[in-house]
Amino acid sequence: MKESVLFWPVHLKGRTLYILDETKIPQRIVYLKVRHYHQAIDAVVTMKTRAFGQFLTVCYTFMLEMQKADGLSAGAQMRLLERVAAAFNRSRPTFPFEEVTGMVLGVARKVSGSPMFRQDFISAMNGFLEQGIRQKRYQRAQEAAALIKDGATVLTHCNVSGELPLVAEFCRKAKKKVRFLATETRPYFQGSRLTAWELKREGFDVTLIPDNAAAKVMSDGDVDCVLVGSDRSAANGDFANKIGTYQIALLARHFGIPFYVLVQSSDKLSSGREIPIEVRRDEEILCFAGRNLAPEGTAAFYPGFDVVPHQWVTKHIAIHAR
Amino acid sequence: MKESVLFWPVHLKGRTLYILDETKIPQRIVYLKVRHYHQAIDAVVTMKTRAFGQFLTVCYTFMLEMQKADGLSAGAQMRLLERVAAAFNRSRPTFPFEEVTGMVLGVARKVSGSPMFRQDFISAMNGFLEQGIRQKRYQRAQEAAALIKDGATVLTHCNVSGELPLVAEFCRKAKKKVRFLATETRPYFQGSRLTAWELKREGFDVTLIPDNAAAKVMSDGDVDCVLVGSDRSAANGDFANKIGTYQIALLARHFGIPFYVLVQSSDKLSSGREIPIEVRRDEEILCFAGRNLAPEGTAAFYPGFDVVPHQWVTKHIAIHAR
């Protein structure tokens, strides 16, 4: 099946990591060339990559640093990986960097006694990404497609890292018509720039709406189900996703519309209350494309995420980690 | 009391109408110079003026045309006013142009037998605008201020045509602290460009949030009441306002937060279902400041307004027409 470039937005080739610069879409498809983990951290903090792209960036950055570490002892290699982990853990609050780096360090420790430590680590990580992640994302997309009825209109918010075109493709294979309503998703416009772009590119039916029109399209009877992704989930099924997901879930509940979420299941946190919410810089809502939307110095509050309680989720469509 | 420039954004001086170009705020305060009613219609269609500005534009455009009509017979003057009315009635669907032009034609017909038709019409209109509108808006702002408790945070959406700083000023006079949360109000950014701008300019406490954060700030307990304006109301108390007002009202109801609306009462329509909803051009959500947010040709749906059912309104704060 053809994949959206957003489905696997990071690639490691030799000693260079290529990270899709999502801020340049839809104008251009450009990859940042990363040769040192500090550059990878920077791509995360400035949101050049996000969501699943962050996950891949973490995994591949460890592999990149190991590619370059041929002159180091196994102990020094392990310490290097620990520095990389610590740097990612400090980068952004809501995404579970600690879980991901902890998992990768676990893989490293398992093979650290081997005389082929570097090669074994890289090969174990490649296996994990292909079998543990790529294949499971395909399964999850197929599961989601099975929930969508023929002729349905699916409302989505933000961007599910290239998985929505795959869901649409599974619907097409099953001869089911599906139409998407994508919220534009201020302030980063993931809906306009990424979701509408990738769905249109693959020939699927997508209509963009302002975030403010979600309740209107629901009350007009134009939404059959909601399907969103998740940036972090808790053991009880609460999950955090892009700011605005919470109000869409509440509206869906009011209108009796099924609400589905694609999650990576996790049991590190017991409930959504424990998920830290990143507050982004005021400038990100005060300016756009170099133009001031509000006078300089205006106070702003831009929480990057909100948490949807598990009771409002009709079905979690999960990848179970390892 | 000092008025926001948005409180009375249109002025007639001699044979020129000055319409505040709201699209240039916050960068500049610029007035369009209008000498013919076609230019006034254009300012309405392109949303250079909006909401209460549209109301003033209609009233003053009739007065402008009468200023210029000194060479015409009374019959020809009346026919001119009817052409102006017909042109406004065709301009945009949701705002009640027919009600406003009908009211103005009524004023004209009342004095059309007078030998001083032009002067009497202009003087009657001036009286109506000063006593019937400006004074009543002051009273309405004072009534709204009385509902706000000391220390309250008021969430607002879009822009209430300069009336919010007046509400804040009445609170200040009553020694009540008030803080505003303004949604940015995509896609036209009235919240960022107008509401935050005018409140900050007059020294009031305002914080801008993405439209997507409304439910989050409510669930965090950060909102004591909602106060919005209205573009059109029905006899049963339903009202239309900028797209997104409906979902804010629904969220407020869920969280038990009082929801107040400043309306011009009207009994022309029996319920909100009869209010026609303008659908704006796709480009208005696909582009911003000359930059494409989504690929060209992406489908979009941008209803300019939505309708809040009267049951969700805690209190209507009304101006009763005439």
Automatic annotation (TrEMBL), chains A, B:
- Say which domain of life the source belongs to: Bacteria
Gene3D superfamilies from the entry? Answer: translation initiation factor eif-2b, domain 1, Translation initiation factor eif-2b, domain 2
InterPro entries membership: IF-2B-related, IF_2B-like_C, M1Pi_N, NagB/RpiA_transferase-like
Bilayer-spanning residue ranges:
none
GO terms of biological process kind: L-methionine salvage from methylthioadenosine
Recorded GO terms, molecular function? S-methyl-5-thioribose-1-phosphate isomerase activity
* Family of this protein: Belongs to the eIF-2B alpha/beta/delta subunits family.
Mind telling me what this protein is named? S-methyl-5-thioribose-1-phosphate isomerase
